[in-house]
Amino acid sequence: MRAAVLNEIGQDKLEVLDDVEPTGFGPGRVRIRIRATGLCHSDLSAMNGVLPQPAPFVPGHEGAGEVLEVGEGVTRVKPGDRVVVCWLPACGACPACKRGQTELCLAGFMNAGTPNFKRPGGDVFGFAGTGTFAEEVVVDAGCAVPIPDDVPFDIAALIGCGVTTGLGAALNTADVEAGSSVAVIGCGGVGISAIQGARLKGAAEIVAVDPVAARRESALKFGATKAVSPDELATAKQEVTGGEGFDYVFEVVGKSATARTAYENTRRGGTLVVVGAGAMDDFLQLNMFELFFDEKRILPSMYGGGDVLRSYERTIALWRAGRVDLESLITHRVPLSEINEALDQMRSGTALRTCIEI
To answer: Nearest to residue 57, comparing CAs of 17, 27, 84?
Structure first.
């Protein structure tokens, strides 16, 4: 079986190998033939060590495909079913799940420490307990979420992470108020999805902030009312809010520097939503006086900040109704053999989302 493998953390190229096999099939498990997978910036972050992940590993966590085989006790899916891979499944029994905060369930993270694959040289892990840059993957049954027949695999793959994260940040975490002003810092696939979410909620002004001109142009097509480079944000803040600051600012980069910029461009009493996944040693500095005096809400948003399965269903309904554009998020398509080209597209900012067709 073919899979793209990172042998050591810090390497910038993946090796496409044909001697990788999925492991761990048995009771409560599902074997999936991956048909399409998106490249998410979190994959790059795992490769370079920003996000903790044991190596060697197969990146990828935003995938969709067909069920090949189900283990004993699996009833929700059967062979032949079309599924999206959920990298953060809810166990339904932990305190977070019982509170209704299924996006905070740690069951999925526990899977990340168990090898998903093997090679003649030893075990290979799957990123986030999945590893969708492979022809097949074996996952817990909760990771295999059925999708309707009319949802293409490439669209389903996007729903598996980036779209759910960005839309949910605006719809669930921030609950953007109609008529409000919004700024989104970082306009890749997740940031564009946050823009679409803010538009759905009726935001009057949506300012997209990104250093890449092509991404700024794309943001305007997806609902932003203004698109600026980081150097132009101060001017946009003055023009849109009279210098007061935005009602909502979404940080979708995962850096303390951009989070600090987001805080400073949020109005007093406004809301900063932290969407980007950053490093454990990258600290955001705030002083105690400004925290008290400015009364700005700081809301982290994990995987869209809501029930993941409900978010999938909502996104499919919005897509069917033409309320969100998912097709245009896919700006590039490559086969698995050209995965390193996709990585370069992500690093350069030329791609919103690259679909890897497997």
So the answer is: 17
